[in-house]
Amino acid sequence: MTAATVAILSWRSAHHLGLSLIMFSTPAIICTIMTVVRPEWFSPLLRNLLTSLSLTHRFPRFALGIIDGGAVIYYLAVITLCLYLTGAGMAKRRWAE
User: Fold this and answer.
1) Residues 6+ away with beta carbon under 8 Å from 21
2) Which domain holds residue 18?
3) What stretches in the chain show pLDDT beneath 50?
4) Per the confidence metrics, is the pTM higher than 0.70?
5) Which of 47, 61, 78, 89 could form a disulfide with 66 if both were Cys (CB 3.0 to 4.6 A apart)?
């Protein structure tokens, strides 16, 4: 499970999206930073996992004009997740008033 998935599930139960995102995104951000700073601390498996989840890993091919189907699906999934989170946050604010 990714940090975003866990954050969404905890938001569903706690109804506090900001706290959920902070609580479950912070370890992922720390691991990403530590992978850049001290890559020898992490196994190649974790390094490959974090690289495959990175938004910038797939972008250079788009910059060269190469359209990769997997990258398109990945970016569409990220866009869908962000739109869902935005809609859920707006709906929560609307019903909270």
Assistant:
1) 4, 7, 11
2) 1-54
3) 1
4) no
5) 61
